[in-house]
Amino acid sequence: MRGIRLGRAAWSAVALAVVLTGCGVPTGGAPSTIAPSDVPYGLASPSPTASPTAPPDAVGDTSRVHWISAEDTLVPRTREVSGASRRERLAYLLEQLAAGPSRGERDEQLSTALPPEVELSVTRLDDGTATIDLDALGQAPAGVATRRSVAQIVLTATSVPGVQSVLLQLAGEPVEAPLPSGELTASPLTARDYLSFTTPAPTVAVETAQPEPPAGPPPVEEGPAPPS
C-alpha cells in the first residue's frame, strides 16, 4: 500500500508541475513532447515501490515456564506466548512465571520458589542477553530456595528463542546472582548454569550391617569308645 501511495503522490506532483509551468497536453493541434530538461528532477523517473519489510521477530512461539516438582527438581511447562517483538514475548512469559502455577499444575504438586506479588520486568534485551528487574519481593526466599528461584527465572527466560542469557537487577540496581553451588556471580546467567536443578539429586546407597546368625547349641563332646 505504501508503494501505491507514493505513486499517487508522484502523479499529483506531475499534474501540479504541468499547471504551474504551462506545459502538458495542449487543447488543440498535435501533441508536443516535453524535453526531459523541462521536467522537475525526480518526476520523470518512475517512483520506487517500497518492498514490504518483515518484522524482526516472529509474532508467536511456544516457550516454557519452570516450576518445582515434588522431588524438588525444576520441570518445564509450555506456554503459548505472542507479541510484536521478542522483548514483549519475554515480558509476557515472565508475567506467567510471576503469577505462579495454574490450578492444574498445582494439582500436579508443582510449586514455585518465587515469593508472592513478585514483579519481573524486562529492562533491556541486547545481543541475546535479557536484563530482568525484580521488584516488590516481599518475603524473599533464602538459601537453596533463592538459587531455585533464580534458576526458574533463567530457565524460563532462555526458553524464548533468541534469549541466551540473563542479568538480574533488584529495583533497578544490578545484583550478583547465586549459582547452584551458592557462589555469587555478576556474569550473565545461562541455562547451562542451572541444569543441575533439572535432575534429581543422586541417591547415596547406605550399607547396613547384616545381623549375625544366632548361635546354635554347643557341640557335644564324644567320650571314649566302649571296649569291644
TrEMBL record:
Q: Where is the composition biased (Pro residues)?
A: 211-228
Give the Low complexity compositional bias ranges. 198-209
Segment forming the signal sequence:
1-17
| Annotated GerMN domain residues | 90-179
Q: Which PROSITE patterns match?
A: PROKAR_LIPOPROTEIN (PS51257)
For the region Disordered, what residue ranges are annotated? 41-61, 198-228
- Classification via Pfam families: Germane
Q: Keywords assigned by UniProt?
A: Signal
Instruction: Provide the protein name.
Output: Sporulation and spore germination
Lineage of producing organism: Bacteria, Bacillati, Actinomycetota, Actinomycetes, Geodermatophilales
